[in-house]
Amino acid sequence: MATHAFTIGEAAAQSGVSADTLRYYERRGVLPPPIRTSGGYRLYSDDAVARVRLIKNAVGFGFSLKQLTMFFKACDGGHPPCQKVRQAGADLLEDMDRRLAEMTSARDQMRDILAHWDRTLETTPAGAPARLLTSIPSAGAGRVRALRMRRASPDR
Fold first, then answer.
1. Which residues pair with 35 in a beta bridge?
2. Class of residue 49 by CB neighbours under 10 A (exposed 0-12, middle 13-18, buried 19+)
3. Nearest to 151 by CA among 99, 76, 89
4. What 3-state class would DSSP assign to 77?
5. How many other C-beta atoms can be found within 10 angstroms of the C-beta atom of residue 80?
6. Residue 12 class from Cβ within 10 Å (0-12 exposed, 13-18 middle, 19+ buried)?
7. What digits encode the pLDDT tens for the residues 65-91?
8. Which residues contact 102 (CB under 8 A, 6 or more apart)?
9. Confidence class of residue 4 from pLDDT cuts 50, 70 and 90?
10. Helix then strand then coil, % of the chain, to nearest 5
């Protein structure tokens, strides 16, 4: 099978990531360093492009780059990490179930607060302050904020 030598731009386009992402993957150790030309330009193989696609899919599934690095090192060292990959996938599902339960609880609390606000607004004279924000329970606000922060955290 013929192998190609892709420049960083070509490899990025082939794998659906940016050139910066390829360099980042190299720094993190999840992608082996490519060969370099005499001028110092990176050249990526078909295998490297395939690995980047795999990394993209695995990160989308929920694996961290740190986990993937460990899996690839084990595999490259002749020790397929299949059981560890399976367990890590099960851990991701368990974490997702826990977060869904937390979010469901937070959503239910928000519904209750909104219903309370509706009742408050019905009995508040026009132009008078209803002081809705002061009725938010402190634990509820923290829970919703924590859920938002967790969702936005990079490289889980």
1. 43
2. buried
3. 99
4. coil
5. 11
6. buried
7. 999 999 999 999 999 999 999 999 999
8. 143, 147
9. confident
10. 70, 5, 30
Instruction: Give the residues across from 43 on adjacent strands.
Output: 35
Tens digits of residue pLDDT in 8-58:
999 999 999 999 999 999 999 999 999 999 999 999 999 999 999 999 999
**Structure tokens of 120?**
């408050």
Q: Give this prediction's pTM.
A: 0.74
Residue 29, both tokens: 């150790």
Instruction: State which H helix or E strand residue 151 sits in.
Output: helix 138-152
Angle between helices 82-123 and 65-76 (to 10 degrees): 170
Residue at token pair 């993957």: 25
Residue 93: both structure tokens together:
């599902």
Helix axis angle, 46-61 relative to 65-76, nearest 10°? 130
